[in-house]
Amino acid sequence: MKTIQQAINFVLVLLVFSQVISSLGIDLDEEMYETRDVSTAFRLLDFDTYYGSDSGLDERSGSLHLILNDEDLDDLEKDSPSTKVIIVTIHKYLTNSSLEIFAKEDSKVEGVVVLHGTDQEGSVDTAPDHFSPFSKIPQQFSGLHTSDETEWEWNPNSNLVFYTKWNFPIVYLSLEDESSEILKHAQENKEQDKTKYGISITGQMYGQYDSKVCLRRKYCDPIGGKSVYSFLGGQYNDSKPTTVVHCSIDSISMFPNYSPGYDSDSSSIAVLLAVFDALTDTAKTGAGMDWASTDRQIMFGFWEGEKWGHLGSKRFLKEVEEFKCTDYSSGKKSCETPYRYSLQFTEIDLNNIDESIELTQIGLPSTDLNAYHLYAHVERNDKEDESIELMQYIDDVSKNSSSESIQVTTISQASTSTPGIPPSSTESFIQQNSDIVSIVLSDFNEHFTNPYYGSVFDNGDLKNITQLVSVANLIARTIYAKALGITNLTTIPLELVVDESLLETLIDCLVTDNHCEFYENYFDSEYGEEYVTNYPGVYSEDTGRLQSIFIRNFLQTKTFPASFGSCESDSDCKEDEDGDDIYADCIKKKCYKRAAYYHQAYSQDIEYNTDTSKYDIDSKASNVWTESRWANLSCKSFLFADTTKDTLLFALGLAFIIIYYIIYFLFRKFSIKKFFNVKSLKQN
Ligand SMILES: *[C@@H]1O[C@H](CO)[C@@H](O)[C@H](O)[C@H]1NC(C)=O
Ligand SMILES: *[C@@H]1O[C@H](CO)[C@@H](O)[C@H](O)[C@H]1NC(C)=O
Ligand SMILES: *[C@@H]1O[C@H](CO)[C@@H](O)[C@H](O)[C@H]1NC(C)=O
Ligand SMILES: *[C@@H]1O[C@H](CO)[C@@H](O)[C@H](O)[C@H]1NC(C)=O
Ligand SMILES: *[C@@H]1O[C@H](CO)[C@@H](O)[C@H](O)[C@H]1NC(C)=O
Ligand SMILES: *[C@@H]1O[C@H](CO)[C@@H](O)[C@H](O)[C@H]1NC(C)=O
Prior knowledge:
Blueprint: H1 2-23, H2 28-31, E1 33-34, E2 39-40, E3 43-45, E4 50-52, E5 60-67, H3 70-78, E6 85-89, H4 96-103, E7 109-116, E8 118-119, E9 122-123, E10 170-174, H5 179-191, E11 197-202, H6 211-217, E12 220-222, E13 224-231, E14 242-248, H7 262-279, H8 282-285, E15 297-303, H9 311-322, E16 327-328, E17 335-337, E18 353-359, E19 373-377, H10 384-401, E20 410-413, H11 426-432, E21 437-442, H12 465-484, H13 500-512, H14 546-559, E22 563-566, E23 584-587, E24 590-593, E25 596-602, E26 606-609, E27 614-617, E28 626-628, E29 634-639, H15 643-669, H16 672-676, H17 678-683
Parallel strand pairs: 5-6, 6-7, 7-10, 14-15, 14-18, 18-21, 19-20
Antiparallel strand pairs: 1-29, 2-10, 3-4, 3-28, 5-11, 8-9, 11-29, 12-28, 13-15, 13-25, 16-17, 19-21, 22-24, 23-24, 26-27
Helix pairs in contact: 7-12, 7-13, 9-11, 10-12
The structure holds 2-acetamido-2-deoxy-beta-D-glucopyranose (6 copies).
One 2-acetamido-2-deoxy-beta-D-glucopyranose (NAG) binds at residues 365, 371, 464, 466-467.
């Protein structure tokens, strides 16, 4: 009897109490806000295992715990937090030794937030002396020197931290964004109340095992994109010797969405595009210039996904040699299965590609010689002597071009103590055809001089545009002389120099501004993310990365600047004005005659099977990189119930209960039973 009455009254008290709480505005959800531009360290898988962060199926949350200096780290190591924490730190502490402290079994670390950039008070995440999380021997297992007994550490600055398996999510927040709040909150937590502000992270990125297993079970997708290639003059001639001038177009980073890749390899892209611009400008090459009638043919190659086992160059070379179309479209213009929008590549004769000049990491001024200097690397094989001759030819072009009005880079042969050419697409060409004469030009000699290879710090802070112009001038003049077979190198036109302001614009677009005005000439400006990423992403048949689209459209409109007709899509550009069948593409709602081509860039060891909707894996496969699927990526910060408010609430609640009991006992005296008529309640 009495207990029921007390229970009912207690419920009533609770109801009133919760009303009081909500009227005070203590609502956790209202204090939450989502941070935009959150980017995560991806979970990536190769053929044998997986790497990177794990954001698990469930949300991970904890109070903010700041690690900005060594003292903070020591404190964390000595004195593990008693409740769950999310570490807020900077790149300097993305090292194995600090990660080991975070990952200790009893450490209560639920995740790591890496801050980057500059807020009102300046840069918090200043560049460490060096930061390179990837391999010391990039592309070792897809390159030429896999079985070398002496492994040459091209990238000695690497801390290899990418290869660690983390059991918590790691996200990247740009300080320009709301995350400066996070820094403030973390500081407040540190100075006052350790658990006032918290953060929760979801990502659902937790792929395990390896690429074989995940492709079969469909929880990952292959890394890949689109390469682009073109022939100077826009026409392929299968009976001409061909020089391929090329670079890779992708970059890597711990946080793939933030991979500006200035030195590796946006600087090479910008230089080659500026070269292409100069060579297609008859004011620079001479009015009668006709690239179709030159002795030598020049092919430009921009390979995608090279950092992930030479995806672009390997698939291109493989398909040029042995592509089988099982279902042609009408007129055999394209292939339906496997889908290829153009079959131009099947016309290429690989035996005619007898020379290769590649640019890789040409963006930093040489430190040991003068600033306008590059190193030429040659492979130590049967073609070594001829490759050195090619280098000498380029050196002669350089020496004969030197004048007050033209700044031209000088070159010299790289050290012979290295095993041969550095990691580059040229490795794929030599693997395909060991008779190719090749040189790789770079700003480093024996080891990478870029301290930030494969990181967000490779951002062009050290760029020097006049140095890039000098490289581009050398390449433009070399190509001109090569194509025309010029022996008297003083006859290369003095006018043949690249446009410095174009080069500057290209660097700005490719490295820092995805929405630069210049891009609007080539595609709709809304396309693409806010941030610059040169990570290929996962392969998709339908779309390409902004950079691939830009390069294709740039090459095509430079080659054939005259547009015709208006269009919404490529299919509107199948006929010219006279109604004859042609190859053309739709660029900015106008048709342009086709002169540049995309090529699928994903592992040559896998093939999409439309019947099973899965990738078939070659039995001899050894090189397949995949990205674990993810969902609902978010990073929300929130205010844990404030302790002063907590105390106040507790006191209020206590007072309320005391008052309630006083009233209750008073009422009891005046026969509360009658008043509430509990009996009738019970009878009902
Ligand atoms: C960091 O950890 C990874 C994975 O455990 C390891 O491969 C690498 O050698 C470590 N790096 C250093 C500098 O010890
Ligand atoms: C291809 O090149 C050869 C050799 O330079 C030349 O004789 C021929 O006319 C060219 N073909 C076309 C279609 O331009
Ligand atoms: C670029 O490098 C040259 C040669 O070292 C130097 O004279 C020039 O001042 C540099 N330019 C910039 C903008 O740093
Ligand atoms: C110019 O090139 C020729 C080869 O064509 C070479 O013999 C000569 O040494 C070069 N001139 C200079 C100043 O180096
Ligand atoms: C090279 O060309 C220049 C200018 O046309 C000329 O003066 C010079 O004599 C030529 N040199 C040789 C070796 O033919
Ligand atoms: C993402 O979150 C929504 C609700 O917020 C949920 O319905 C959905 O299942 C989540 N996606 C995945 C793949 O878990």
